[in-house]
Amino acid sequence: xxxxxxxxxYGGSEVLICEEVTVGEPGAGQLRIRHTGIGVNFHDVxxxxxLYKTLTLPGVPGCEATGVVEAVGPEVSGFQVGDRVAxxxxxxxxxxxxxxxxxxxxxxxxxxxxxxxxxxxLLRAMTVEMLTGPVCRIRPGMSVLxxxxxxxxxxxxxxxxxNLGASVIGTVGTAEKAEIARANGCTHTILYRQQDFTxxxxxITNGRGVDVVYDSVGADTFKGSVxxxxxxxxxxxxxxSSGPIEPVLMSTLAARSLTLSRPILFHYxxxxxxxxxxxxxxxxxxxxxxxxxxxxxxxxLADAQRAHDILEGMAGGGALLLVP
Length: 324
What we know:
GO terms for molecular function: mRNA 3'-UTR AU-rich region binding; NADPH binding; quinone reductase (NADPH) activity; zinc ion binding. The structure is a single chain. The model has no long low-confidence stretch (mean pLDDT 95). The strands form 3 sheets. Strands 3, 4, 5, 6, 7, 14 and 15 form a 7-stranded mixed beta sheet that branches. A 6-stranded parallel beta sheet has the order 10-9-8-11-12-13, sandwiched between helices. The protein contains 10 helices and 15 strands. It is of the alpha/beta class. It has helices spanning 42-49, 116-132, 152-163, 175-183, 197-204, 222-228, 250-254, 265-268, 272-288, 304-313; strands at residues 2-7, 16-21, 30-39, 64-72, 84-88, 98-102, 107-108, 143-146, 167-172, 188-191, 210-215, 229-237, 259-261, 297-300, 320-323. The protein starts with a strand and ends with a strand.
């Protein structure tokens, strides 16, 4: 019998209930997957709490996992029983020991890549693919500011930017996180609790400003992020951990011909071809070592409540892995 974490009402971690479920045979275009690892993300917390009402209740949360193909449905080619796969989905359902999965979401795992890194970091890595590819093409020599540079996405984003030849400035909260940011590709770090990051960026760039800002913090940093951009700079806001951003006047952007993006990963994954390309690129970077995600902390699937409690109490940068 399979098990899944089912949410029947919104609330705290206590609403994550482990239940027995029946997983039938795959239909046309489907695979039956036995999960080997499941990622835990703040998106899951927002779904659980009701902040995001994007999961029909009762429902099974979870956006990413790795697994082994147990059965192949009709009209599916390219997969066979025993294949190792990874996936990211906005259709949820990953918090389970087994599931039926649309075959167009399954991406073969490269040889030599373990289950833990993709299961707990593929969504982050694909976010990095989105940020440095279709959202904003990075060229060698660009200067880039990354907020929360030691966070889960932040550290991999800094790695990717450094690999692309950019000069990376990272804001962090502590000296310990500054060391993490430098180890992951930051040329300069700014302790934002001790320094005004706008002045620090002006000093580092000799008053020119940066070409790109990646801001996942939102309300607390947005105004300063705009101020740090040079002429024709691009601000990418991809989160708002400190709260929503007030409306922006077009004249604010026009003052230096600035551009502003607010990308949502799942919008970029609607095209199956782009989804597969981004996932395959991320997995290959795991395989080659060009992206080095944090080692995840394993938690049994049945203890998903504890995993959410750990996640909400984390200072940032780590990863959690549910193990069926």
